[in-house]
Amino acid sequence: MSLRPLVTTRRILAMCLFASLAVAQNQNPRQIHIFVALADNASQGIAPVPAKIGDGDDADANLYWGASEGFKSVFARSKSWKLEKAELNPVPEILERRRYRHTSKDCVLVAEAWRGKNIHQCLETFFADLRNRQSDLAAFIGHNGLMDAPVTVGATDANARPVDAIILCCLSASWFKPHLE
């Protein structure tokens, strides 16, 4: 197995953790929502990864969630974030939802492992979170589903408070920038 995807995932998770801490220093309580579209060799236009970590219906082994450098695994080892609640299959499109609280900042982080085949619905929900100002920081982690098919983004009220966003996927700047502006 190539180490390239794991190194990339490690960097992605480090950036999320850093951004989460930065957001936590402002108003109380801060809300962070992480949307993780599981890697899925069968339904996404990704460069195939080994079958075990590329099964979009198996969160526990997935590259972006349960693998040793996946989101859930990294946060399970964190001393700064404590798990408050874990839900399996809260809705059919989401395999797992986890709620963490920062140990020293008034900050809550909700992370969701979306089935790989539901990547476009995950992206639409991410954009809706930004548009509706539901979180202080919203992050998308996964394959760049915009390269596969368009998604509904919707318009945002120009006078609404800004929301920070992190997008961690291939070629994100060119594909996501028009939607974030």
Q: What can you see in these coordinates?
A:
- The chain has 181 residues and is α/β, with parallel strands linked by helices.
- The protein is built from four helices and six strands, in the order H-E-H-E-E-E-H-E-E-H.
- The protein has a six-stranded mixed beta sheet with strand order 2-3-4-1-5-6, with helices on both faces.
- It starts with a helix and ends with a helix.
Topology (elements, then pairings):
Layout: H1 4-23, E1 30-37, H2 71-76, E2 81-91, E3 94-102, E4 107-114, H3 119-131, E5 137-141, E6 164-168, H4 172-180
What's a quick, concise take on this entry?
This protein has 181 residues and is α/β, with parallel strands linked by helices. Helices cover 27% and strands 25% of the residues. The chain has helices at residues 4-23, 71-76, 119-131, 172-180; strands at residues 30-37, 81-91, 94-102, 107-114, 137-141, 164-168.
- Computed over alpha carbons, the radius of gyration is 15 Å
As a percent range, the share of strand residues is 25-35%
- H/E series: HEHEEEHEEH
Overall geometry comes to: globular
Question: How large is the count of helical segments?
Answer: 4
Mean pLDDT equals 82
Structural class: alpha/beta
Number of strands: 6
Q: What percent of the residues sit in helical stretches (DSSP H or I)?
A: 25-40%
| Strand order across the largest sheet | 2-3-4-1-5-6
Alpha-carbon distance between the termini? 38 Å
* Low-confidence spans: 1-9
Biggest pleated sheet? 6 strands, mixed
